[in-house]
Amino acid sequence: MKITRISVFHRDLPLEHPYWLSGGRLKFEVLDATFVKLETDAGLIGWGEGTPWGHTYVPAHGPGIRAGIETMAPAILGCDPRLTVNVERAMDLQLPGHLYAKSPIDMACWDIAGQAAGLPIADMLGGGSRRLAPIASSVGATTPQETEAVMNRYRQRGYKVHSVKVGGDVERDIERIRHVEAFRKPDERILYDVNRAWTRQQAMRVMTATEGLGIMVEQPGETLDDIAAIRPLTRTPISVDESLVTLQDAARIARDGLAEVFGIKLNRVGGLTRARRMRDIALAHGIDCFVMATGGSVLADTEALHLAATIPDDNMLGVWACQDMLTVDIASGRGPRNIDGCLHLPEAPGLGVHPDEDALGAAVAVYS
Predict the structure, then answer these.
(1) Are 294 and 267 within 8 A, CB to CB?
(2) What is the pLDDT of residue 211?
(3) pLDDT for residue 239
(4) Which tens digits make up the pLDDT trace of 32-74?
(5) Which residues are catalytic?
(6) Do 227 and 238 contact (CB within 8 A), yes or no?
(7) First to last CA, the chain
């Protein structure tokens, strides 16, 4: 089997509400999404998606995905999509780095591989739990009262896992955390996501002031070196996501005991082929996981769900689904959707969902 044609689509995905990150440092209203359609000489078609969380959050942006695919297309054409490691190596040789640009190609290859085998991607990755996976909300950094209002909106949709954004002002963050903990429900799990916005001294002041609340924080420093300096000084569990990009990052975090949780974001790390290696490092070291798309439609959410399903239930803390934050649906209600705050693994072979091409518009590039 060979890849014979690559079609690339660009679609803006407006957010239902403006989203503030890191104490108002970053604001997002529309996501730049790239959808990739791989066609094969066997008649199988695979779909992938790459949707970075804006252009200014991390070194990844929508136009960069499309430019990267243009560069990699000659090396991808003719590859057998079922041999995902071979495709990975072909992309790496053609374009070193730029993992976010490789992720949608990797996703589409796994879609085809699953269809060829007659299995969902999760089962291709080693076996998937059919337990409903709890969705983690994403609550932008605003006032404590607005934070409560947003969380209540998600609660009405059944959500019991929440990622609350903090960062940027020590006193405000302490107030926000204490306020949220005061109205936390007994069956809820809350992650306070700093998104790298604290300096080392800010991290220590907030984490010391809230240590007795039993909270968990994500990415409390800019780099792994920052987290390595913070880790011995606090008993607060730490999750790492922005600094978890490569397999070397995962190995260092596990080896040096820098965090108790991996936040694996598939577009950031380059897709399922690389993410499953991080999963294995986490499980080998007793590290729990959140699994997330960086952003995007039900396609990106479904990819994250497939990896999450391969993680033992006791170690899988939640999946983040962006679809509930969007005003458009490019798949007409198909695929995993929120059921009482959870997603259910598709049983169809491959990814288990595909977009409506009419909703994507004309391809912006075709390679054959």
Answers:
(1) yes
(2) 93
(3) 98
(4) 999 999 999 999 999 999 999 767 666 778 899 999 999 999 9
(5) 165, 265
(6) yes
(7) 15
Q: Are 105 and 72 in contact (CB under 8 A)?
A: yes
% the chain with pLDDT above 90: 85
The two tokens of residue 38 are: 């791989």
> What pLDDT is attached to residue 155?
96
Q: What long-range pairs does 91-95 form, CB within 8 A, spacing at least 24?
A: 95/68, 95/71
CB-based contact 295:31 (threshold 8 Å): yes
Written as one letter, the residue type at 298 is: V
Q: Which residue has the higher pLDDT, 145 or 47?
A: 47
Torsion, Cα of 219, 220, 224, 229 (10° steps): -160
The domains found in the chain, sorted by start residue, are 3-118+357-367 (3.30.390.10), 123-343 (3.20.20.120)
Say if residue 368's pLDDT is above 80: yes
Structure tokens at 55: 């252009």
For the segment 280-308, the average pLDDT, to the nearest whole number, is 96
Angstrom distance (rounded) from CA 154 to CA 164: 12
For the chain, the three-class secondary structure string (H helix, E strand, C coil) is CCEEEEEEEEEEEEEEEEEEECCCCEEEEEEEEEEEEEEECCCCEEEEEECCCCCCCCCCCHHHHHHHHHHHHHHHCCCCCCCHHHHHHHHHHHCCCCHHHHHHHHHHHHHHHHHHHCCEHHHHCCCCCCCCEEEEEEECCCCHHHHHHHHHHHHHCCCCEEEEECCCCHHHHHHHHHHHHHCCCCCCEEEEECCCCCCHHHHHHHHHHCHHHCCCEECCCCCHHHHHHHHHHCCCCEEECCCCCCHHHHHHHHHHCCCCEEEEEHHHHCCHHHHHHHHHHHHHCCCEEEEECCCCCHHHHHHHHHHHHCCCCCCEEEEECCHHHECCCCCCCCCCCCECCEECCCCCCECCCCCCHHHHCCCCEEEC
Does residue 275 carry a pLDDT above 60? yes
